[in-house]
Amino acid sequence: PPAAAARSAAAAWRAAAWPAPPRRALRLRRPGSAAAPAPSVPSLVAPLEASSAAALARRAASAVAHTAQRAFRAAPSGSLRCTRYTSSAAPSRVGRDPPSSRHLWTRPCRAAPPPPPPPPLPLAMQAVASKFQLDAFAKACSKRGIFKRNDKTAAAAITLPVMAAYQREPIPTSLFKLSSENTNRAVKNFAMLLKYCEGEPLPPEQAAATMQPMLKAAVKRPELRDEFFLQLVKQSRGRPTPDCGLSRVWQLLQLLCCTAPPSRECTPFISEFLQTASNDHTASALGFPAAVQAAAASAWDGLRKVVKHGARRSTPSQEQIVAHLSNHTLNTICFFLDETFEEVPYGLCTTVADASKQVAAAIGLTDHQTFSIFEARKVGTKELKEGAAAEEHVSLSEGRYVADIMHQIRTLAAKSDAPMSRLVFKKRLFRDADEGITEPVFISLSYVQAQHDYLGGQYPVTREDACQLAALMMLGDMGPVHLELESPEQLPLERYIPRLVIATRPRQEWEHDVVGRMRALEQFTNEDARVQMLRLLRALPYGQSVFFSCRRIEDPIGLLPGKLILGVNRRGVHFFRPVPKEYLHTAELRDIMQFGSSASAVFFKMRVAGQLHIFQFETKQGEEICLALQTHINDVMMKRYAKKKEAATNGAAAGGQADKGAARSAAPGSEEPATQGDGAAAFAPYNKQAAEVSKRLEEERERADRLQAEASA
């Protein structure tokens, strides 16, 4: 039948096209007969090898055909081309031409899509382009095959925009020209960036521990700061997608901006980059999310403070890093001189000036310009027995960071096992303008500080003044209720009279004098008594002074002791013997011709008994002494200038009225005779004096600025 004939023809065609390997014939061997010789190895292996090769060739041709068919179906019209496929390994088939040449529709061979071009360099970054080591970076990349090119094309393809754009592979060398040791540090730091930014999310404590080495190197090694800044900028520019790695990069950049500033050459570029990222319009154009904009704004605020006040002195702790990343603040306690306190929040770059403003705002103090935060250190037992105060208040620069101060306090307390120091809020300087301030909080703080200084033995006074001050302080603190006491023995004299002063008389005499003065002042209210106490202390030659401990280095006269205390107020510089505190000498402001300071000393060129002498003293607070002295000099000059100007204004007004009267008398019908006079000419000498005073004031300001610049240098 036709079907059977077709099946037999197909079987014959398959047998011819794919011949089966010859099979070995089985022969029966009688017992005891000799065995037939075994066929040789080549005769058995050759047919098998030919059959296996043919099968492999057929399978390869079939796979190529199926691939071509799938490509033809998937490709759009017009995108295919006809290619010739040649297979010499396929065997010929019976009744057909050998499949030596077949036409297959295949997709043309396409190369991988090129990477997106790097973003263009900002204009500010082009100013620091000379600091990049482009040739060395390109050569190192071509040797390691980072960009998957051969040696010739890799070096030419790595341009400055490519070098400053995002990179997933580790860098072979530093971006800037550094020493070999710092280059190794820069390469390790970039590996840390990749591990933290491109890896799995870490717990806050572990993430802080990962970031801490970079911040420590930035604090200790200023030459690496620009490299770290550029590495972070590089990883934030040209990323394929704004993923979570971008937010981590900005976290590191935010921490670095709040820890150490870049160099002067790189500061404009970093500043422009942060402003661009924090701006709503430019950030949205660059594809930055809202979280990145907030981090850029915070980094910009931190960079401004760090550039102004300098880098941190200590590495940020893990606690500070975690609090900063979680948008929280740490808290410390700031005490007042009456043992009350207020909590002060602080961050990585919170300065003493910022903390002072926060304390003033918390207690409702408006005129806080003369207040600041001090470090109160406990005095040893030996100094306390000699009559010194229980605490030594060390002035803190307004540009110091609260985090550094707290780190120093805790470190010293851990090493010496001594009581921990504390922060105290008080007046930094008493000025003439304080008399016109009527703010209750200001008067209360000034009174508490004056009382604290007096009871600490800072103001040597007579017995009469001590009795008067004790009566005023009792009325100011507790009112006239103590006048009704049954016996004077209940008066707390030890709280209002210095212990070295109260030991000079019997207690009964002190009680009798203090009670008599309190009865004479019973009409005073609490506020009146406090104001009167401040006026009494202000009337002393050394009243409301700022005191500094120092040692004598050069004394041409030979009258000063080895250890002494300097007091500076609006009248001049005062010299005291420390224990027991004794007033020695006063140099008025008009007698001080010149003054200056260094890191460990201060000198005065002043007139003593009509002759100029140079005195030099050893102290670490020389800059503060000069600043206080210059402030009082400026206040005196401004006060004199205001008086001269007021007199000249009043004189000019009086002269104008005289001119108007002369004009009226010269008019027709006037009864009085005309008088000649020019008010402006009459008061010309006063205007000249005012101009001279203004000129001298400007010279004093320039000298103060020069001294401050020398002290900071």
UniProtKB/TrEMBL annotation:
Compositionally skewed regions (Basic and acidic residues) per UniProt: 693-713
Top-level taxon in the UniProt lineage: Eukaryota
PROSITE patterns membership: FERM_3 (PS50057), MYTH4 (PS51016)
One GO CC annotation: cytoskeleton
Ranges of compositional bias, category Low complexity: 649-660
Keywords assigned by UniProt, alphabetized: Actin-binding, ATP-binding, Cytoplasm, Motor protein, Nucleotide-binding, Repeat
Domain called MyTH4: residue spans: 166-325
Keyword Magnesium among UniProt keywords: no
A Pfam family annotated for this UniProt entry: FERM_M
Subcellular location field: Cytoplasm
GO function term, MF aspect, one: actin binding
Main location group: cytoplasm
Region feature (Disordered): 86-106, 649-713
InterPro entries found in the cross-reference section: Band_41_domain, FERM/acyl-CoA-bd_prot_sf, FERM_2, FERM_central, FERM_domain, IRS_PTB, MyTH4_dom, MyTH4_dom_sf
Domain FERM: 330-641
Protein family membership: Belongs to the TRAFAC class myosin-kinesin ATPase superfamily. Myosin family.
Descriptive protein name: FERM domain-containing protein
Provenance organism: Prasinoderma singulare
